[in-house]
Amino acid sequence: MTLLGILQASKVDLLFPPASYPTPATTYILKELNVAWCLFGGRDFGPKAEEKLSPHSSSDYDMVTANSPQLRRRKGSASGRDDRRKEKGGMCRDRNTLMEIELSKIRVRYDAYPETSDKSARVAALVGNVEVRDRLASSQLNKFLYCYSSESMPKQSHASMVTVKLLCLRSDSPSVSSECCLHVGLLPIKLNVDQDALFFLKGFFEFVQSAPAAVAVSPSGETGLVRSGVTVSRSQSSSVMAASSQSASAGGEIIFKSFTFYPDLPLRIDYHGKRINIEQGFLSGLLTGFAQLSNSEVTLKQLSSKNRWKGFGELVEYAMKEWVDDITGTQLTGILGGVGPMHSLKQLGQGVVDLLWMPIQQYRKDGRVVRGLQKGSSSFGASTAMAAVELTNRLVQTVQAAAEMTYDFVSPAHQSERRQNRAEQKRRYGRQPVDMREGVTRAYDVVAQGVSDTATAIGRVAQHEHEQRGITGAVTGLLKVAPGAAVQPIILATEAMSNVLGGVRNQFVPDARREQEDKYRSEQT
């Protein structure tokens, strides 16, 4: 067989059933469907904006985001970025609280088999890409969830991020509608979790799941059912309830006789806690508020079992129990590796291990000890350099945050305006420098712009005070801005150093730059 024939034979469309399956009586195929779902805060249907919402309204899932000081300072800055978000919606919709879920390249195939076959149906669903984007006004993150790839973990071309295959078999028991075999597969996932976004999603889906059906009266006097703000007339609701009761009596429960989750699913997690919320419990509120994770690694192990689970709920409980037991038993080091500077220290330790182990491994392989020493030294040098850069950058950012806090303390006037300007500046220059040269260039621009702004501000204050009270006022004005001007060089120096270190890191590790661009918002996002 030629190479072309081998490649064509190896390219199998997962939507199609195996050749051993019988010919389906009916087939439905859905190709290339894209779905975008925008989750807003507030509510579209309900009381007016000036009225107090009930405890069961959507304000429950707004949490602290909609009322946070950061949102009030930046109100309106998140709106107008996209035409889809300019739709008016309901009068109580909060457009500053938004999460976007996008599923692209969805393909589904449904096969129904004849009565003579032991197989009743087969469903195969492929999702090319899944992204959850953070658009909360109080967050600086960009992508909440997306498919992760790197040089060590490359993504296969044309590979689907989500693969689901369900095979339904006919059952002899009248109480069982069908027996199903489920296979699920996912590509590696990266999570950039902001505390406000996490609480919003949690509260949103809890509200949607627990929203009760209530009786409402339409303007014409006709009564009906309301669920999640959608009104259904009496005739429609009676037909819906009749159909649902008929289907429930006709069909029995669904049994999952086998479940396969393959392969292992690597998860890389970054988490940014902001505030303590004791409504979730004191310990959990403390952890979610203080926790800061960077590159924590968790792996959901592959599962293959032929137990019998009654319904989808029991199957999910089984999978969650297996994963939680495995994570708590063997993977706590991967989670703790993302706490503080532990990731950098882990890199440094890995470099030391490679320096000692690679020569031994190469000697066992082909006896070339010198080659092993070269590989070990190269790995040790790269790991040590990257760990040093990340630790130094973390230290510089800590000093910068402390200097900015000191500046706000000694110069309390227009504090909120300065914070907003800093956030906008970080977003404008959110794109990471490609290499060290660009990092140095941007560092020079930051220092030059900062010195110019500081000199302009000092001159403006002195001129204003001189016009009001003469020489005495000018001297008094200079004394007022002197503490802030003394702290400003530290802020500029640390910000410039952060740009240089970011350029060095991105030059040696191109994956780091792409991760930062996916993680943080830029002027375009």
Helical content stands at 40-55%
**Count of DSSP helices?**
13
Radius of gyration: 29 Å
Name the structural class: alpha+beta
How far is the N terminus from the C terminus?
50 Å
Mean pLDDT: 79
**SSE string, helix = H, strand = E?**
HEHHEEEEEEHEEEHEEHEEEHHHHHHH
Contiguous uncertain segments of 5+ residues: 3-10, 49-81, 214-250
Largest sheet: 12 strands, mixed
* Proportion of residues in β-strands: 15-25%
**Number of DSSP strands?**
15
Shape: globular
Keywords, please?
single chain; 12-stranded mixed sheet; 13 helices; 25% strand
Describe this structure in words.
- The protein has 525 residues and is an alpha+beta fold.
- It contains 13 helices and 15 strands.
- β3 and β4 form a beta hairpin.
- The chain is globular.
Short description:
This protein has 525 residues and is of the alpha+beta class.
SSE topology sketch:
Blueprint: H1 3-10, E1 26-43, H2 59-62, H3 69-73, E2 92-112, E3 119-134, E4 143-147, E5 162-169, E6 176-186, E7 189-194, H4 195-210, E8 214-217, E9 223-227, E10 230-233, H5 234-250, E11 253-261, E12 265-272, H6 282-290, E13 292-300, E14 303-305, E15 309-310, H7 311-330, H8 332-336, H9 342-366, H10 369-410, H11 415-428, H12 436-508, H13 510-519
Parallel strand pairs: 6-11, 7-12
Antiparallel strand pairs: 1-2, 2-3, 3-4, 3-5, 4-7, 5-6, 8-9, 9-10, 11-14, 11-15, 12-13
